[in-house]
Design brief:
By secondary structure, this protein is of the alpha+beta class. Helices cover 24% and strands 27% of the residues. The strands form seven sheets. Strands 10, 11, 16, 17, 18, 19, 20, 21, 22, 23 and 24 form an eleven-stranded mixed sheet that branches. Strands 5-4-7-2-9-12 form a six-stranded antiparallel sheet. Strands 8-3-6-15-14 form a five-stranded mixed sheet, with no helix packed on it. A hairpin with a 2-residue loop joins strand 31 (744-753) and strand 32.
């Protein structure tokens, strides 16, 4: 057992120690002297797992040993068996990220082994994973580290133990875009490849690729255009399962403590419950059990025979359907198996089939991974139920962010703009960290194609175009401008903003004032379902044939924000034009689509269909005059006969409530979120039951609304230079909230007793603003300000 504990300690230290980014100079401004290397027989984009290594001999341990490293598709770098870093951050070949890491802490005097595992799942890779071809690159930072440059002296071996385990999409009945599962045969695995004892493996001289390694904009050929990683690396944290659901065991219940023993020639099925949804690398530590087959199947929730999930805590009468990995034991001692890709799960079904030798399982656990957000914001109130929504919402947001944002971690892991706008606001309000926000804006900017639009999701190896998402990208640029205002960054996006708006301007009907026929997928919300293969889901009436009030108003909404951007950076003619266009379009929509009988906007001038969406945007654009907005909002929230917004578009409903002065009604709109909690969800889902994704970041919007609407903290001018605080407490009698600001934290504390309210607001140094309470405005200065006000 002593050896086991030493092994576990070594593994824990090696997986948990992540070196921090360092300066990337001078390698983002010159050709690299290192060579891209690959396996001699590797096909450019075929399935394959490869181990690279080189021996480094040192007379003494250096204080610093900095290298820059990357791989295609993905890699893990090891030094003397210790995992040092993982990468690269997802991008595309025109903007390929490299990592910078100081490996000195892992080096020894004398012989050292620097190695990397590089893999490409080929056709089985995630849709978000772009590729040029399978290869590895390591560049020393200076003359001291040049001996480690990839090229001559590097060896490689193809790990023949790996095969793809394709996803059973038919059983899942769903669009799945994540990487497939894997089959790993321990009998063929290259054990010890990352350590000195792996020297006996059949290593070959690595093949140098002919094209030079270079930073972006250098050279004439394509391949990888290298850029330094702009975000911190994902964290990896050890975690244990909370329960083993014994109802799934096909033999006597297991002991609650490890090790678990499985007799020869037996079959066992276990169901492990993490307790909450997670993104993690499963870990399996075993001994013996030669040729035993262990299959791990991951699920957000279990399904009944009708493919319904029901209460997520219930397992009786349900089954696991999901993505799987499979490991075949070689019979060795203390073998650790962990898949190359992280998986998303609450439940893991473990199927164990032994052969002629008993199997011992010492541990089944996992390493959580995700973007290293810090929860800096705070929201505490007199309603304890809101804390649960806050906690589950934050878990949802965190699970939808690693090295990009993504819509859902289990099924797609794609960075869709419509989702990402909401995620970005949550990130900046709760963590104050805008690095992933800026990367997302840049990622989408890299996706522009010849029509003048962005792709709907990026990075992605499969082109998909949703023009309305290009409009939301403009709004993302605006949101960041209001909350952070980094001039060079924002200005670099203005030409793209103009290209998108030009695409829409060219499609305005010449006389009607509404958008004419529109191409591509004009998605607005899942409120409009798929109808066989005739009508595409999510598209409102009038989008394809022309005359959609909803999409026309979204264009006007975006024009107003683009006008502010252009005005701030001296493009005044564009600013004036956009402002005038926004007002004219809003007026034309009202003139053609207002139904005076129903007292609301219709979806098209024909006035045959109505939705919350058209009226929400009518309020946000002032197409409906301010004096009518409260009544209109109350009407569309009460009228169940019109098309309802899903969780996604409720974000805009709540923005309309904020604008129209109905913010105090917001807390009464949270019933669908409480319903999800009652269903046992530990993250917020994409849509009401029946649902596909149990974790969808757009449904985490209450985090943002608690801070921006209930506590009422909003930027009054670009860069959050001035603050506007307008609380909407509803039935709450007290709240304490804090919001991270570039200069510090904004704090709001309110207690209401009888007809009196005690309000304390603290602003960071150099920040001023205003408080609005019961229709009156009170000035705010830096520091602490206390008010005793009536309500």
């Amino acid at each position: 057992m002593k050896n086991l504990f030493c092994l576990l300690l070594t593994l824990l230290l090696s997986w948990g120690t992540i070196a921090q980014p360092l300066s990337t100079e001078p390698w983002k401004h010159r050709f690299w002297s290192a060579k891209w290397i690959s396996h001699p027989t590797a096909t450019p984009n075929g399935f394959g797992v490869y181990h690279f290594r080189k021996e480094l001999n040192l007379d003494s341990v250096p204080l610093s040993y900095v290298v820059h490293v990357t791989g295609d598709n993905l890699f893990r770098l090891f030094v003397n068996g210790n995992m040092v870093c993982f990468g690269p951050a997802r991008s595309d070949p025109a903007n390929w990220n490299f990592e910078t890491v100081d490996i000195a802490a892992f080096l020894n005097k004398g012989k050292n082994i620097v190695s990397a595992t590089v893999w490409n799942f080929g056709e089985y890779r995630a849709y978000a994973q772009t590729s040029y071809e399978t290869a590895f690159l390591l560049q020393g930072n200076s003359d001291t580290e040049f001996p480690m440059n990839t090229g001559k002296g590097w060896q490689v071996i193809m790990d023949l133990s790996y095969q793809p385990l394709p996803i059973d999409r038919e059983s899942l009945r769903s669009y799945v875009a994540v990487a497939s599962g894997e089959i790993v045969d321990g009998n063929r695995y290259a054990w010890g490849h990352e350590r000195a004892e792996g020297s006996g493996l059949r290593w070959q001289e690595a093949r140098e690729l002919w094209y030079p390694a270079k930073p972006r904009t250098y050279g004439t050929d394509g391949n990888w255009q290298l850029v330094p990683r702009s975000i911190p690396r994902a964290v990896e944290v050890e975690q244990e399962f909370t329960a083993e659901r014994t109802g799934y065991v096909k033999q006597a219940p297991l002991s609650k403590s490890f090790p678990w023993q499985f007799a020869a020639n037996t079959k066992t099925s276990l169901l492990l419950d993490q307790g909450t949804l997670t993104n993690a690398y499963p870990q399996l530590l075993i001994s013996k059990g030669k040729n035993a087959v262990i299959t791990l199947t991951y699920a957000e929730a279990l399904f009944n025979d009708n493919m319904e999930k029901g209460n997520r805590n219930e397992t009786a009468g349900k089954r696991v359907i999901g993505i799987s990995d499979r490991y075949i034991s070689d019979g060795g001692k203390f073998r650790m198996y962990s898949p190359l890709h992280y998986r998303t799960f609450r439940y893991v079904k473990v199927d164990i089939e032994t052969r002629d030798e008993p199997l011992t399982v010492y541990k089944i656990d996992s390493r959580y991974t995700g973007y290293p957000f810090e929860e800096r914001a705070r929201f505490v109130s007199s309603d304890p139920g809101l804390q649960k929504i806050w906690d589950v919402g934050w878990r949802t947001a965190r699970l939808c962010a690693v090295d990009t944002y993504f819509d859902c971690p289990y099924y797609e892991q794609l960075q869709y703009v419509g989702d990402t706008r909401i995620q970005a606001l949550i990130s900046m309000y709760v963590s104050g960290d805008d690095r992933l926000v800026k990367k997302a804006i840049d990622d989408i900017a890299h996706s522009f194609f010849s029509d003048g639009l962005t792709q709907s999701r990026y990075p992605s190896r499969d082109l998909q175009v949703i023009p309305t998402f290009s409009l939301w990208w403009v709004c993302m640029v605006y949101d960041h401008f209001m909350l952070r205002k980094e001039d060079a960054f924002t200005q670099s996006k203005l030409n793209g903003v103009e290209n998108i708006l030009r695409w829409y301007d060219e499609r305005m009907a010449p006389k009607g004032g509404l958008l004419g026929p529109l191409s591509w997928w004009q998605f607005v919300d899942w409120s409009w379902p798929w109808v066989d293969s005739i009508r595409i889901g999510g598209v409102p009436p009038g989008a394809s044939k022309g005359g959609s009030s909803i999409i026309t108003l979204q264009y006007a909404y975006t024009l107003a924000r683009a006008s502010e951007l252009m005005n701030a950076y001296g493009r005044r003619s564009a600013a004036v034009r956009y402002e005038q266009m926004a007002k004219k379009i809003a007026a034309d929509v009202f003139r053609q689509c207002w139904d005076d009988t129903r007292k609301m906007l219709a979806d098209t001038p024909e006035k045959t269909s109505f939705s919350q969406h058209a009226n929400i945007l009518g309020i946000l654009t002032d197409a409906v005059e301010s004096s009518r907005q409260k009544d209109l909002l109350r009407k569309i929230m009460a009228d169940q006969s019109i098309t309802q917004a899903t969780y996604y578009f409720k974000f805009y409903l709540f923005e309309a409530m904020k604008k129209a002065g109905l913010g105090n009604d917001y807390l009464g709109q949270l019933k669908p979120w409480y319903d999800m909690l009652d269903m046992g969800l530990t993250t917020f889902a994409e849509n009401p039951e029946p649902t596909r994704s149990d974790c969808h970041a757009w449904s985490a919007s209450p985090l943002y609304e608690m801070l921006s609407l209930v506590a009422g903290v909003q930027p009054a001018t670009p860069g959050f230079k001035r603050v506007f605080v307008k609380p909407n407490m509803g039935s709450l009698t007290s709240l304490i909230a804090s919001v991270p600001h570039p200069q510090g934290d904004i704090r709001v504390a309110i207690n209401r007793t009888g007809r009196q309210a005690r309000i304390v607001i603290e602003l960071p140094y150099g920040v001023v603003g205003e408080l609005e309470w019961e229709g009156k405005i009170y000035p705010l200065e830096q520091g602490r300000k206390e008010f005793q006000l009536a309500h």
